[in-house]
């Protein structure tokens, strides 16, 4: 069985005792909530379930990236721009250093992580037991796709941009609905709206959310970042 220099004691410590200021342990909670809610919805699907599941994964990804960056800065003694490594975390975006709490762009967070790894991966390879070169190359593509979908961490939380993709019910027609209700078709749900004169004024049908592809990407990215985060906490933070 593989052992790490420091066991994951951070899981049993208050947020005020966390090496990464608490970002990672909160990421774990959001990731676990997403996994549990997704498993539940597979058994008992509820309307628009993809939205909260996707948001939980997306927020976990953001927090994992922030935790990883903080651990790397502090372990490797890399200053946060003008501030020391032990200071308040900052993220470099273009030429500016921005407080980490104001950065929600996962692609920018990942670029910061990649910049650190490019400069220090050889040092990490020789001083830890983790193979840092084994990080999935697809991670960058997944995070770019997530960024294109949800730049400010608002897409899955609020109505507005992209509403046509979000809801499970789509505008339809009587003919379309009937065409999907053959003896060999799976069960389906539809809503027909009538006027006071019993005339059809609207027809809507439920279909599998168009968010399923991005939800799968979110799950994969969260899973990979969870593993990287765990290695960082055990190898670089003494389990704290």
Describe the structure.
This protein folds into two domains: 9-166 and 210-236, no CATH class; 169-207, no CATH class. Helix 1 (23-43) runs antiparallel to helix 7 (212-236). The strands form two sheets. The protein has a three-stranded antiparallel sheet, with no helix packed on it. The protein has 240 residues and is mainly α. Strand 4 (190-194) and strand 5 (200-206) form a beta hairpin. It is elongated and about 75 Å long. It has helices at 23-43, 50-76, 106-127, 138-149, 163-166, 174-179, 212-236, and strands at 90-93, 96-99, 169-171, 190-194, 200-206. The relative contact order is 0.19. Helices cover 49% and strands 10% of the residues.
How much helicity do the residues have? 40-55%
Which geometry do the CA atoms define? elongated
Strand order of the largest sheet: 3-5-4
The sequence of SSEs as H and E is HHEEHHHEHEEH
- Structural class call reads mainly alpha
Give a short account of the largest sheet: 3 strands, antiparallel
Whole-number count of domains: 2
| Mean pLDDT value | 91
What are the low-pLDDT stretches, counting only 5+ consecutive residues below 50? none
CA-based gyration radius: 22 Å
């Amino acid at each position: 069985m593989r052992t790490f220099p420091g066991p994951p004691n951070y899981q049993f410590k208050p947020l005020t005792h966390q090496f990464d200021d608490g970002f990672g342990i909160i990421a774990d909670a959001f990731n676990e909530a997403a996994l549990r809610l997704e498993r539940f919805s597979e058994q008992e699907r509820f309307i628009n379930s993809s939205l909260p599941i996707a948001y939980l994964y997306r927020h976990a990804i953001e927090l994992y990236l922030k935790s990883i960056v903080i651990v790397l800065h502090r372990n490797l003694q890399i200053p946060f721009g003008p501030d020391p490594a032990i200071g308040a975390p900052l993220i470099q975006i273009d030429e500016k250093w921005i407080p980490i709490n104001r950065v929600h762009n996962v692609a920018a967070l990942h670029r910061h992580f990649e910049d650190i790894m490019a400069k220090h991966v050889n040092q990490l390879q020789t001083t830890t037991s983790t193979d840092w070169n084994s990080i999935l190359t697809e991670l960058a593509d997944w995070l770019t796709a997530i960024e294109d979908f949800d730049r400010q961490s608002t897409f899955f939380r609020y109505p507005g941009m992209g509403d046509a993709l979000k809801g499970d019910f789509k505008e339809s027609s009587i003919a379309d609905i009937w065409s999907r209700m053959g003896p060999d078709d799976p069960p389906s749900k539809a809503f027909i709206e009538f006027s006071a004169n019993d005339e059809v004024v609207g027809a809507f049908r439920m279909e599998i959310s168009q968010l399923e592809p991005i939800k799968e990407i979110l799950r994969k990215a969260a899973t990979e970042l969870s593993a990287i985060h765990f290695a960082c906490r055990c190898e670089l933070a003494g389990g704290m």
